[in-house]
Amino acid sequence: MEFNVHRGRLERIVPSIIVFLAALLAGCGMQGIPTDSSLFDATIPDRISRTTPVIVRLTETETDEENPVWSPDGTRLAFESSRDGNKEIYAMDVDGRRTRNLTQNAANDDDPIWSPDSRQLLFVSNRDGNKEIYVMDSDGSNPRNLSRNAANDRWPVWSYDGLTVMFISDRSGSWDLFSMNLDGTDQRRLTTTAAVEDNQKWSPDMKHVVFVSNQSGNNEIYLMDGKGSVPRSLTRNSSENTCPNWSPDGKHIAFVSNRTGNWELYVMDADGSHQRQLTRTPEEEDSPRWSPDGKMIAFVSKGEGSAFISVVDLAGRIQKTMTDTVSEKEVPSWSPDGSRISFIGKENGGPWQIFLMHLWGPQQAKREDRLGSIAAFP
Ligand SMILES: [Ca+2]
Ligand SMILES: [Ca+2]
Ligand SMILES: [Ca+2]
Description:
Elements: H1 17-25, H2 44-50, E1 54-57, E2 65-70, E3 76-81, E4 88-93, E5 100-101, E6 109-114, E7 120-125, E8 132-137, E9 144-145, E10 153-158, E11 164-169, E12 176-181, E13 188-189, E14 197-202, E15 209-213, E16 220-224, E17 232-233, E18 241-246, E19 252-257, E20 264-269, E21 276-277, E22 284-290, E23 296-303, E24 306-313, E25 318-323, E26 326-334, E27 340-347, E28 353-358, E29 373-374
The structure holds calcium ion (3 copies).
One calcium ion (CA) binds at residues 262-264, 279, 281, 283-285.
């Protein structure tokens, strides 16, 4: 079973629990790690509003390249590719050069997540017969199976102190959240429902975990502490509410919902209060990701045969919308310095490839050669 990020929200078409899970994971993106705040260029918000973004394609292959994740030090992107015939985790410099296969294993290896110090990666592999959570050094050496359980274990996220791993497992009969130490000890079940729990994200202060569950019959966003306290629902309606994403200061949570009959971007306070709709578009909004300074949110809008990435401020004012020749897009993710957004996209129906949108920087000088152009928000 593969969870491809581009599979879309199939749960509205095929209501099986497996597809439901795939759909929950789709588009939301993995949790990044807070980065060294000194990397962030505080002048970037002003520059974004004055500069034309430039899109650069980083991969050129015939296979799907997916799930790019920034190293917290901003120097590399890890990603998944099956260019050698099975899924492997690769890492490349952020200019697209010096790509290296880190896993080199005949099984499928995916879901890479950097450690806070950029020295290790968590990943998922079925090399031992079922999906397990592994850790390896950032050069691919020293891989260790952490979960060691006959069930499926996947979607690992680091705690911000780098000491524990939160993941999802179906070992109890339904998908639930679990935590363990970085050596695989002290594996604990944190949720105890017959429903699907996933999409877990630590709050920046590590006091809370936000996650998604369909225990009420539709996807809602829940909050608990990292030890498995009784979850509290932050959203409560008969529509879908998913893709929660913490603001860097931990005060707000961005998410998407179809409560108006159309998918839109929302922000709420971390206790679920003050839910505010930031977009009103005919497209389907997806994958909200906060800028490192917490002043903006990047997201994808998907329409018929097109997709574009926009950056919006907390008042819902669109700062930038990119239109270009990349007809499908998923999982935008900010560079730690806030100058670039990585994403995956398809050109002319080709395979998923990795792109960088330069919001500001030296690439602007060469923009005639690039894919990007700027457009008014529809
Ligand atoms: Ca492999
Ligand atoms: Ca469950
Ligand atoms: Ca919309």
